[in-house]
Design goal:
Elements: H1 2-5, H2 17-20, H3 30-58, H4 68-96, H5 104-128, H6 135-162, H7 168-188, H8 208-211, H9 214-219, H10 224-232, H11 249-278, H12 282-290, H13 299-325, H14 327-340, H15 346-393, H16 398-403, H17 406-427, H18 429-448, H19 452-496, H20 498-504, H21 507-557, H22 565-606, E1 625-635, E2 644-652, E3 656-660, H23 667-675, E4 679-687, E5 691-694, H24 705-710, H25 717-726, H26 730-735, H27 753-767, E6 771-775, H28 783-794, E7 804-808, E8 820-825, E9 828-833, H29 835-841, H30 844-865, H31 869-872, H32 875-884, H33 896-911, H34 937-943, H35 946-953, H36 959-969, H37 971-1001, H38 1011-1056, H39 1060-1065, H40 1068-1110, H41 1115-1159, H42 1161-1166, H43 1170-1219, H44 1226-1267, E10 1292-1300, E11 1307-1316, E12 1321-1326, H45 1332-1339, E13 1345-1352, E14 1355-1356, H46 1362-1366, E15 1369-1372, E16 1381-1382, H47 1383-1387, H48 1395-1404, H49 1408-1413, E17 1421-1422, H50 1431-1445, E18 1449-1453, H51 1461-1474, E19 1479-1483, E20 1495-1500, E21 1503-1508, H52 1510-1516, H53 1519-1526
Parallel strand pairs: 3-7, 3-8, 5-6, 6-7, 12-19, 12-20, 15-18, 18-19
Antiparallel strand pairs: 1-2, 1-4, 8-9, 10-11, 10-13, 13-14, 16-17, 20-21
Helix pairs in contact: 3-5, 3-6, 4-5, 4-7, 6-7, 10-41, 11-13, 11-15, 13-15, 14-15, 14-22, 14-44, 15-17, 15-43, 17-22, 17-41, 18-22, 19-21, 19-40, 21-22, 21-38, 22-37, 22-44, 25-27, 33-34, 36-38, 36-44, 37-38, 37-40, 37-44, 38-40, 38-44, 40-44, 41-43, 41-44, 43-44, 48-50, 50-51, 52-53
């Protein structure tokens, strides 16, 4: 270098430490300034160029029109180039004129000139590539300015010292150069207009990131607008930006699919190349046998091919950030040395403080760029996996579908895809962790020598300990999940059967069961929390113990080892860096194992067989035919025997073909074969034209009824109306709360079976296809409805008269009207022909008719037993009543919206009491009071669950909620926890101050004295801190478990005492949510969140205390920093809370849509709508991403700003230490700066935890809200209990009794007065809605009287406790509800009766044979809702309950359609014999059961219309006579 600078007047050495370092007024030599300093920006630009050009090559955005900004930038670049070359020519000029300038004056202008030219060209190239803001050039201009500042100063200084300017020409060109460079830097910060062909104009709300400039991206400034908006008002869906193109599902999934297909191709090639090799030699075979895995295409390689490049870019960020992390400890050591050396010039200290700040800021910016990059990649991976799994699920064969359940596939999407996303940010730790550990150890070794190994050994030993604790915690978690699941299941049953529990007064038994489970759950919670306390102890004490052991070993190994501030505090900060990778590595490994399992599962699923799209020929067919099967043999799976063999079936165009045969002969399989759903082994299938398919089990989507019928086609009102009319849906629309806009729940939950089937049929009719494949659509509907549908839709006169129809059916009555009939037997066609021809043949068809006929007779029998009024009534209306009341109660509680609708619907019906003698009118809708107006569907959509969420979710959480929680934890406990935390922080600070004092002692003599005392005190203080941590953790645990117990208890007890009206108006999903989600949050989420919050809070506070104590000047900057911090916190929390809510609301539709798709995949394929459904799924995922992405960016935005506060703290701590160096010891400086270096993490974490706490504490509020709803009357009234053996007579009297369902509704019973004598048998009849069921509910006080009284044996029932009343009455309810548990529990939950009593009751209720045939006997397990018993058996169990109770008053609410005649007769007979002496009140639907009763009560519109013996009433020719006549009894 010295030779380059040459000799002569400007000749100088390259480096002169006296000039540059050991002086109060530093400067660099002219040689250094002209060479290296001038070259730095050039070297940077040339180094960055190749990578940047490569990047631009693949990222073209369209070109940007030449703007004034661009012209100006280019002009400046050209000017700079001219200035540099002017310098160069000046040097040549000097050479010519004989004063030879040093070589450097030729080299530097040449290099700089070429670089400036390059920069100018780059400006234009970027414009053509559509770059709006160039990071590369901003950094280049910035470096130019920074490197220009030094010559800028030194040229002025030298001119002042010399008194004249030595080289006026170069002096002038330099300042022109500097001005131009500065101007270029300023201009490069402005961004260009968007590219010419950019899609900006289409997008209503584009993501500002795409348009953001380099600096805005670096600091996440582009997010600020959303943060401010979120602070002003809660964010809504319309505020979310649309996605960047590269994040959208269609883009990501497409890329992943292409890579996967590539893998499949390669795997196929490998198989092909391996196959011939098989025969070559046995060696080969062994080799191939050893590696069968290579055959399956690798999903890992697919992921790498798709997302690898993004991962590499993020790795570069990570590498830079890791290296920067080690700069600050080195700077700290320089700072401490500077403080220890009083002679050092001041500017050293300022330089170090400045470098610390710059280094921290760079670290922050780069770290968050890394996170942004990697999280975005994680989101893309998740999107890709969801999309690929969804697309695969649409094409898998049926055999695959059989082995992977819907739940498993949904798991692939939700759990497994999420695992990839969770692992993404940690993946780089695989190489970065070891790198950090190696670097930290290297620097520690330099500092302390071999004694580092002692500390390292301890760290390594603690890893397995951590692992063991984590394993144990996981087993606890699994066990606890089991308890939780069983508790939720029990709760959902309780909520489902709450009315029965109330009627039987069984609540205490069930409360006990729930609390039993809860006890075990809390026990495990407690154990897990103690373990958590241990792991917290390890986590807090590790850095301390490691420091202690290392320093201890260091001082004791050699008395000459002096512990000074530099060694101690640099080691402490290095150990802090080391702590991170060591603590995360175990998590990373467990995450990796889980993800590898997920990877295998996804790979396995994606490698499954797919349906062959070619197995049905859709293009060609013999003329005149619509469907032909030519010698077809089909199977459901390759490993199963064929289901259908050698079929030859031609179907002419426009024919109606019936397919009949016994159960299991392959009728549905035939339809599937025509759809291409089965695997074809031989033969040909031709299907020409579009297909509509109605499956045997209707598949209904979770959307409005209209959308179900349209199924993606545009609405044609005439067509639509015709379809609804033909499928008898118009009458249903009247009853549905929102007509055809009613939201239909998952699996069509708020429709009865018959309605679902008709909607499915309407979809086919509306699709207007050429070929209709109808798989037994008539079996789910009533017989007269079936007739209507056949006549209006399928038959020769129907809507589809000219279409080709293949109808699978069991209904014999329709066969004469078909064109021809295919009779199947054992998977083969046994006969084909017209109805008459087949009858004459007397073959298998005649047998089939013979087999099916008896069941038809039964059907007629049943129809005859219905009141005749129904027969002449208009079909549809009756069918409606029947259909709507079909016993579909497969309600899912997690579908609150639809549940609400269905409940409303069922409630309307049950309040009118469900009976069929409605004189053939459509079911009247009770006038709904304001409280119960059914929301029109669109609102219902909005209302469902959201009402509640919104009410809670908006705005800040009230302080009273925190106070409630503190009270539940226990105020003393809360106070003690805070005290312990203060103590713990104090002891930590104490230990560190002691360390700093110890290091200052070093200066006294060459050796340190009393090291043992020093070590002892340090150890004591540290271990004290650890113990306080454990204590506070345990206190916290005890408090939180107590809170969890109390809150759940209050919730459970309140809910068990809520009146029935509460359960009628609140969907059980909403109540269940309190017991599951909210209680889970209180159990498991709140405590750790509060612990971490307290941890980070006290860390931050103790940092401030230490820094202020050592440098009091620091207090000046605390206020502005705090204000900035709080502002950021307020903006972040408000925005993030809402984004999290939007994200969680938008996540479940993805999975529910998927499970819906899987169940309906055959329908979707039949209608050819696979692509539409893929698009719908993509749209749902994108909708979710639209809130995920800003949520993720909000964390980055927060991080950059909060860490900036932390970096300022570091800077000011160092700066003030330099300013006050005279009065500070090196130990104090080391202490304050090493504390400050840790604070950034704590500050960031504190806001995140605060935000989490705010979103989670809502659970307490929600539980509290449901723990304080109003309750019904007390169960037992002390001092007013009925006498033992009451009621003895069984006399019931109503006096002027009126009742309404809920305040604000009309009266259901009006001024009812009647008296039933003891032992009388009274039948209660009346039209729908006359108030029959209400009357019985009043007897049990399920409904509270509006006025009037009820007396039983002269005792006013309102004066005694509910349980005293209800336990003395018996009811056999209309719908038999059983709970999961043993049969004994279902009969006698309190264990009041002996075994013999129970068996006797079973014998009388005709269940004896069934129960004794079960191996478990009375311990026979009933499944949820008694699903494993038939409806009749369930009804008999209810009878057995009544027989066990044997009270004086029996209420019998007769079952309508649910029960077969046989069971009904059994029940009636038993009641006549066993309850001879009791008072029996029967709500009758079949009049023949009450014709021999003492009296009959006829209710009409809530009043007594007639009350006398049946014979007298018939003679009186009133209402009862009319009913009896219709029923053929009079």
């Amino acid at each position: 270098m010295d030779t380059l600078c040459g000799s002569g007047e400007l000749g100088s050495k390259f480096w002169d430490s006296n000039l540059s370092v050991h002086t109060d007024n530093p400067d660099l030599t002219p040689c250094f300034q002209n060479s290296l300093l001038a070259w730095v920006p050039c070297i940077y630009l040339w180094a960055a160029l190749p990578c940047y050009l490569f990047y631009l090559q693949y990222h073209r955005q369209g070109y940007i029109v030449l703007s004034h900004l661009s012209r100006l930038k280019t002009a400046l670049g050209v000017l700079l180039w001219c200035v540099s070359w002017t310098d160069l020519f000046y040097s040549f000029y000097g050479l010519v004129h004989g004063w030879a300038p040093a070589p450097i004056f030729f080299v530097t202008p040449l290099v700089v000139g070429i670089t400036m030219l390059l920069a100018t060209l780059l400006i234009q190239y970027e414009r053509l590539r559509g770059v709006q803001s160039s990071g590369v050039l901003i950094i280049f201009w910035f470096l130019c300015v920074v490197c220009g500042i030094i010559p800028f100063r030194s040229k002025i200084l030298s001119a002042m010292t010399e008194g004249k300017i030595l080289d006026p020409f170069r002096f002038t060109t330099f300042y022109i150069y500097f001005a131009l460079v500065l101007f270029s830097l300023i201009l490069s910060c402005f961004r260009e207009k968007p590219p010419f062909f950019s899609p900006k104009n289409v997008d209503p709300n584009p993501c500002p990131e795409a348009e953001a400039g380099f600096l805005s991206r670096l600091s996440f400034w582009w997010f600020t607008k959303l943060a401010i908006r979120g602070y002003r008002r809660p964010l809504e869906e319309r505020d979310l930006w649309s996605l960047n193109k590269e994040d959208r599902s269609e883009t990501v999934v497409q890329r992943l699919l292409e890579a996967w297909k590539q893998q499949q191709k390669q795997a196929a090639q490998r198989r092909a190349s391996a196959a011939p090799g098989r025969t070559v030699s046995s060696e080969d075979e062994e080799l191939l046998g050893a590696r069968p895995r290579a055959r399956e295409p690798s999903f890992l390689k697919t992921l790498l091919a798709t997302f690898g490049p993004g991962y590499l870019i993020s790795s570069c960020f990570m590498l830079v950030q890791d290296l920067l992390a080690f700069v600050n400890p080195q700077l700290l050591s320089i700072l401490i040395r500077f403080i220890s050396n009083p002679t050092a010039p001041n500017w050293w200290g300022f330089l170090v403080a400045g470098l610390m700040f710059v280094c921290s800021v760079m670290q922050t910016l780069i770290l968050h760029q890394y996170y942004h990059c990697i999280f975005a990649m994680g989101l893309r991976v998740r999107t890709g996996i969801i999309g690929v799994v969804y697309r695969k699920a649409l094409v898998i064969t049926n055999s695959v579908k059989r082995e992977s359940a819907v739940g498993e596939m949904v798991n692939l999407m939700s759990v497994d895809a999420q695992r990839f996303m969770d692992l993404a940010p940690f993946l780089n730790l695989l190489w970065s962790g070891p790198l950090q550990i190696i670097l930290a150890l290297y620097f520690l070794w330099q500092n302390l020598g071999p004694s580092v190994l002692a500390g390292l050994a301890l760290m390594v030993l603690l890893i397995p300990l951590n692992g063991v604790v984590a394993m144990k915690m996981r087993t606890f978690q699994v066990e606890q999940m089991k308890f939780k699941d069983s508790r939720i299941k029990l709760m959902s049953e309780i909520l489902g059967g709450i009315k029965v529990l109330k009627l039987y007064a069984w609540e205490p038994s069930f409360v006990q069961q729930v609390e039993g489970i809860r006890q075990s759950e809390l026990r495990l919670l407690r154990q897990a929390a103690y373990l958590h306390a241990i792991s917290t102890f390890i986590w807090v004490c590790t850095p301390f113990l490691v420091t202690l052991i290392t320093l201890g070993v260091y001082v004791s190994v050699d008395p000459n080892n002096v512990l000074d501030a530099e060694k101690a505090f640099v080691s402490v900060s290095l150990f802090n860096i080391l702590k991170n990778p060591l603590s995360i590595l175990p998590h990373l490994l467990s995450g990796l194992t889980q993800t590898s399992v997920s990877l295998k599962r996804i790979q396995h699923f994606l490698s499954h067989d797919e349906l062959d799209p070619q197995c049905v020929e859709r293009k060609t067919i013999a003329p005149g035919y619509a469907v032909i099967i030519d010698n077809g043999t089909f199977t459901w799976a390759q490993d199963l025997p064929p289901t259908l063999h050698s079929l030859d079936i031609p179907v002419p165009k426009g024919a109606l073909v019936a397919v009949v045969g016994p159960v299991g002969c392959g009728k549905s399989s035939l339809v599937s074969a025509l759809l291409g759903e089965m695997e074809k082994l031989e033969g040909k299938v031709y299907v020409k034209g579009s297909v509509a398919y109605v499956p045997q089990q209707a598949w209904i989507q979770n959307c409005t009824l209209q959308e179900n019928v349209l199924f993606g086609k545009a609405l044609d009102p005439k067509c639509y109306q015709r379809a609804l009319e033909a499928c008898a849906l118009l009458a249903d629309l009247e009853v549905l709360p929102g007509g055809d806009k009613t939201e239909i729940g998952e699996k069509g939950i708020n429709l009865s079976g018959g309605q679902r089937q008709r909607v499915s049929l309407a979809r086919a009719v509306y699709s207007d296809a050429d070929i209709f494949l109808l798989d037994d659509p008539l079996s789910a509907v009533d017989s007269h409805v079936a007739k209507h549908i056949f006549d209006q839709v399928i038959g020769p006169e129907g809507v589809l008269a000219n279409k080709t129809r293949v109808l699978v059916t069991h209904g014999i009555s329709f066969l004469p009207q078909t064109d021809f009939i295919i009779v199947l037997a054992d998977g083969q066609v046994s006969e084909v022909g017209t109805y008459s021809a087949l009858l004459q043949r007397n073959g298998s068809f005649a047998n089939f008719l013979h087999n099916y006929a008896p069941s038809k007779d039964e059907e007629h029998l049943e129809e005859d037993s219905r009141p005749a009024a129904l027969e002449d009534a208009d079909d549809e209306d009756v069918l409606l009543i029947e259909d709507t009341l079909s016993s579909h109660t497969d309600l899912m509680d997690n579908e609150p919206i639809t549940y609400e609708v269905r409940k409303q619907f069922m409630r309307q019906l049950s309040s009118m009491s469900s009976d069929g003698e409605g004189q053939g009118r459509p079911v009247p809708r009770r006038r709904l009071g304001p409280a119960e107006k059914v929301v029109p569907a669109l609102e219902a959509k909005a209302n469902g669950m959201l009402i509640e969420e919104e009410k809670v979710g908006m705005g800040k959480v009230k302080l009273s909620v925190f106070w409630d929680y503190a009270k539940a934890v226990g105020l003393w406990t809360t106070f003690v926890i805070c005290l312990l935390y203060v103590g713990q922080s104090a002891s930590a600070i104490g230990a560190n101050i002691w360390l700093s004092a110890w290091t200052n002692e070093a200066a006294v003599g060459g050796r340190q004295n009393n090291t043992s005392q020093r070590l002892g005190v340090y150890a004591t203080l540290g271990i004290l801190q650890g113990l306080l941590v454990v204590l506070s953790s345990i206190m916290m645990t005890v408090g939180c478990v107590r809170a969890a117990r109390l809150l759940h208890q209050a919730l459970l007890h309140n809910k068990m005492r809520s009146p029935q009206s509460f359960f009628d108006t609140t969907p059980s999903g909403r109540i269940l949510n309190r017991f599951s989600k909210d209680i889970y949050v209180i159990d498991e989420v709140l405590a750790p969140t509060i612990l971490m919050l307290l941890n980070s809070f006290f860390t931050s506070v103790s940092t401030l205390v230490v820094v202020v104590a050592s440098t009091p000047l620091f207090a000046v900057v605390i206020l502005p920093l705090a204000v900035f911090y709080i502002l950021v916190q307020r903006f972040y929390v408000a925005t993030s809370r809402q984004l999290k809510r939007l994200e969680s609301v938008s996540r479940s539709p993805i999975y529910s849509h998927f499970s819906e798709t899987v169940t309906g995949s055959s329908v979707i394929r039949a209608y050819g709508r696979s692509q539409d459904f893929e698009a719908i799924s993509d749209a749902k995922v994108d909708y979710n991403l639209r809130s995920c992405y800003p949520n993720m960016s909000s964390n980055r935005w927060l991080g950059v700003r909060v860490e900036f506060v932390g970096n300022c703290i570091v800077f000011f701590a160092a700066l003030f230490a330099v300013i006050e160096r005279s009065r500070l010891s090196p130990g104090m400086v080391g202490l304050s700066v090493s504390y400050a270096l840790q604070v950034t993490f704590a500050l960031n974490w504190m806001i995140r935890m605060l935000s989490d706490l705010e979103s989670n504490i809502v659970a307490v509020e929600r539980v509290k809200e449901y723990s304080s709803t109003e309750t019904e009357a007390p169960w037992v009234v002390k001092g007013s209990r009925p006498p033992a053996g009451w009621p003895t007579q069984g006399e019931v009297e109503f006096q002027n009794y009126s009742v309404r369902y809920r305040p604000g509704l009309d009266l259901v019973l009006k001024d009812l007065s009647l008296r039933v004598r003891g032992g009388e048998k009274v039948g209660i009849v009346g039209r729908t809605g006359a108030g029959k069921s209400s009357m019985t509910l009043c007897l049990f006080l399920i409904l509270e009287a509006a006025e009037g009284k009820i007396y039983i044996d002269g005792l006013n029932v309102a004066d005694i406790g509910l349980h005293d009343l209800r336990s003395q009455l018996t009811i056999i309810p209309q719908d038999p509800i059983l709970f999961s548990g043993t049969l004994r529990m279902n009969l006698d939950p309190f264990g009041n009766y002996s075994e013999d009593d129970i068996w006797r009751a079973l014998e009388l209720s005709h269940l004896h044979t069934f129960v004794s045939s079960q191996p478990a006997g009375l311990d026979f397990l009933c499944s949820e809702g008694g699903e494993n018993l038939s409806v009749g058996q369930r009804q008999l169990v209810c009878l057995a309950r009544a027989l066990l109770r044997k009270s004086r008053i029996l209420v019998l609410d007769e079952a309508t359609a649910a029960i077969d005649l046989e069971t009904d007769d059994l029940i009636q007979a038993t009641i006549r014999t066993q309850f001879e002496t009791c008072t029996v009140l029967t709500i009758a639907h079949r009049l023949n059961t009450i014709m021999d009763y003492t009296r009959v009560l006829v209710l009409d519109k809530g009043t007594v219309a007639e009350f006398d013996s049946p014979a007298n009433l018939i003679a009186a020719r009133g209402i009862f006579y009319g009913m009896a006549r219709d029923a053929g009894l009079a």
